[in-house]
Amino acid sequence: MSNYETLIAQAEQNLAEAKRLYDEKPLDNLSKINYENQKASIELFKKTGDIEKWLEKEDNDFKKRMNKIKEVNKKKYHQLKTNLYNFT
Fold this sequence. Notes:
The protein is 90% helix and 0% strand. The model has no long low-confidence stretch (mean pLDDT 76). The chain contains 3 helices and no strands.
């Protein structure tokens, strides 16, 4: 199995895992975004065969997911802080 085939197989496993998570929580925006990003990433890699472009996209997608998680956590933190303040 060539490096290209190995990368495609690994990416397809990641896509299957993202799909499973999305199927478990279809209303969860993060799982939907993750699934769509994985799918687009595989398609880009299959079309171009350009590992550098693919890795750059994966890196950008990861950063977007982390920023979204930070945003959600910040909102939860502020809500918790507000609730605690209102409670006391």
